[in-house]
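Fold this sequence, please.
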Amino acid sequence: MNWNEFLPVPAIDSAQKYVVFQPHSDDAVWFAGGLLLKLSQAGKEIVLVTMTDGRLGSTDPAMTPERLVAIRKKEDEAAGKAIGAGRHLYCSFHDGGLPHCGETTRTMVRIIREERPDAILAPDPWLPYEAHQDHLNCGWSAAESMIYCNLPLYLPEFPAHDVRFIA
């Protein structure tokens, strides 16, 4: 059987609106910045969603979590602007504590239903070398949200929405 005929994989640039779920403020720019810039320059709409507050991302012993959260948000806003993100949303999960599915999935489904994207971009939790729990939980929750976002009985207060693809 030819799986591409059975379940074709759309071209990554075939959507018009993308929601990009990044576990930390630097993940989307670091791992997909060139793609996101190319998409925004082609007139595609990008909504960047930062899932955690970045409070752990420093090796400086004099740094405080509160100062680092403010620094990371400022850096994140500048990076989002540089890649052409039209909107930037921030979730309140703590760095190092992004839950496995559950509340993370509910948050993503709510965002998907409010933003109504054609495609979702997120970390791939099945990569053999991915070890960061926030990356894994972000990816698994994004995959799970693809199941729930078009089911009207899941979070019925937000109208269901069918996303074309996830990458």
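The mean pLDDT is 95. The two ends are 23 Å apart (CA to CA).
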